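TL;DR need structure tokens for one chain.
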Amino acid sequence: MKELDDYATHFTVMNIQTNAHVREIDCANFIAMFNEQHSEHGDKWSTVEQRIFEIFRE
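>> reply
TL;DR here they are.
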């Protein structure tokens, strides 16, 4: 695989407008934002992440 730093190259679905800026967020900020935005539903990133890893193992 080439161009590993090019986000758009390696994702099959890009629902962004032409010439739109893709925002990069570091892990710590992503987790904080996720937890804040999903807290009303009782979802935490740690739970979602654990489920993702379980799916990988399946």
